[in-house]
Amino acid sequence: MIRKFLLYFRQAFALMKEDKQYSAIYIAGTAVAIASAMLVAIILNIQLANIYPETNRDRTLYVQSFFVNPGATFARHFGFSPEGVDELFRKLECVETVSVSASDNFIYDFKACIELGKQELPVCVNFTDDAFFRLYSFRFVAGKPFTEENVKHGDKCIVITDVLARKMWGNESEAVGKSLLLNYLPYRVVGVVKEVSPLLRKSSADVYSPYSVKDSNMHYIDSENRYQGDLVVSVLLKKGFTRQMMLDELEPHKARILSELKSTTGIDYQWEIIARPHWAESMIMFFGSASDYSTSKMLLNLLLPVLLMLLFLLLPAINLSGMVSNRMESRVAEMGIRKAFGAKKRVLLGQVMQENLVLTFFGGIVGYALSCGVVAAISSNPMFLTFFQRENDLVDSVSVQFDMFFTPIMFLIVFVCCVVLNLMAALIPSWTSLKRPIVESLNQKK
Q: What pLDDT digit, counting tens, does each position of 12-68 carry?
C-alpha cells in the first residue's frame, strides 16, 4: 500500500513537471480556497482551542448569579460576594480551582509610570485573586504570583507582563521588587509573566492586581443579602466532572442559603445560577441564549462557520473541476491503454484522485501559510477584534502566538479541507472520463 502510494506520489511529481502551468494554477486556486476557509477556522480556533494560558478551556466554566427580589426597585442583582463564593464553591468536590474577578474580568484603564513626572503608559489592569494563576497556566519569567494572604489583606502588589517590564525597566528581572505607580499610587511588582495576546480576552491584561485592593465593601451589593455582589466566578472542574454535575452539587447549598435568607430577611428570593462552558461563552454570538447549552444549540452555533467554510471551498472547486476535466481529456488515450491491459476503473480513479490530492496538499500548505499571515497582519484591526469582544491592547500591538495557528485540531481541519476540496474538484470529471468505453478512449487521439 505504501509502495503504491509512493509510486502515485512520484507520478504526480512527474505530471507537475510535465505541465507546470496547470500545476501552478491548480495549486494557486487551492491555496486561495484553503486560505479563505482557514481564516474562519483560525478564528474558531482562537475562540475555542486550548491556547496559552487558557490551556484548560474544555474544563472551565464561567459562573454568574441572578437574584430576583420581587419587592425591590431593581429586581435583578448580578454576581457573588466574597462570602457567597466561599459558601458555594470552595467546598465543592468536583471543583479543582475557583477564581474570582471584579466585574466580569472587566479591564480597567490606568496610567503607569516609574516615577512622577516620567513618561506614562496606558495599561489594562485585571482585578482578580491568587487562584487566577492556577486557573490559567501563566509562564512566569521572573518572580511569582501574589498570594492568598496578599488578597486577604488588600496588599498593593501586582503581576505584570514581560512587555510592560521591558518598557519600564529594560528587562524582566529588574522589575521584581520594584515599585510601579498606577494612577499615581505605588504598587510592588512581585512577578512577571509572559505576555498574553488580547485576543484571549479572559486572561489578558498588562497588570494583575488583587481585587481586594479596591474597597472590599463594594463587592457586596445588598446589605440584607450578604451573598450577592459584583464578583464573577471562574471554575476549573476536576477531570472527569461535568457542568451538570457541578450544578447538581450546588443545589443543596443553594437551597440552604435561600432558606436562611427567607428566615432572616423575610424575602422569598428567587436565585438563578448560570454556568457557561467556554464554547458557549464564545459561540452564543450566533444563535440561542446564554443559558442554553444543549447539543443542538452547540451544533447550530457551529453551523454558520462550517457552511461558510464549505462555501469558500465550493466556489473554487467548480473552477478546479473544469481544469481537471480538461486534463482528463488529454489523458483519455493513456487511460484507454491501461484499461486494455486490465486496469480496473476503481484503480485508475484512485490513482487520479491521489495525484490530485498531492497537488491539493501543496495548495493547502500554501493556503494555510497565507491565512496565518493574513490573521497576523490584521490582528490589530478593530473590525477583526470585534470577533473577540475586546479592546485594542493599550501597551503594545496585538500579539499572535504560534499555538493560535497550529494545533492538532487545526492540522485535522486543514487535512479535511484538502480532502473535501479534492473530492469536489476531481471526483466527478475523473469518474465521467473513466466511464468511456475502451475503444472510444483508444481512438480519442487518432
A: 777 777 778 878 888 888 888 888 887 788 878 888 888 889 999 999 999 988 877
For the segment 101-118, the average pLDDT, to the nearest whole number, is: 76
Rounded to 5°, the CA angle 237-89-220 comes to: 135
Q: What pLDDT does residue 392 have?
A: 42
- Cell numbers representing residue 36 in the block: 479563505
Of 102-106, 296-300, 412-416, the one with minimum mean pLDDT is: 102-106
Task: Judge whether 231 and 82 are in contact, CB under 8 Å.
Answer: yes
Residue 272, C-alpha cell as written in the block: 438563578
Alpha-carbon torsion (436, 439, 440, 442), positive or negative: positive
Cα 212 to Cα 246: distance, rounded to the nearest angstrom: 27
Per-residue confidence at 356, pLDDT binned at 50, 70, 90? confident
CA distance 235 to 96: 8
User: Which are the contacts of 409, defined by CB distance < 8 A and separation ≥ 6?
Assistant: 45, 49
In which element (H, E) is residue 190 found? Answer: strand 185-193
The SS3 of residue 441 is helix
For residues 258 and 252, what is the distance between their CA atoms, to the nearest angstrom? Answer: 10
- Segments of 58-94 assigned E as strands: 60-68, 76-78
What CA dihedral angle connects 365, 367, 371 and 377, to 10 degrees? 100
- pLDDT of 143: 95
More confident residue, 445 or 409: 409
Long-range contacts of 122-125 (CB under 8 A, 24+ apart): 122/394, 122/395, 123/164, 123/182, 123/206, 123/207, 123/394, 123/395, 124/204, 124/205, 124/206, 124/207, 124/391, 124/393, 124/394, 124/395, 125/158, 125/182, 125/205, 125/206, 125/207, 125/208, 125/209
What's 53's DSSP letter?
T
- Give CA–CA dist 134/127, Å, rounded: 15
Strand partners, 190: none
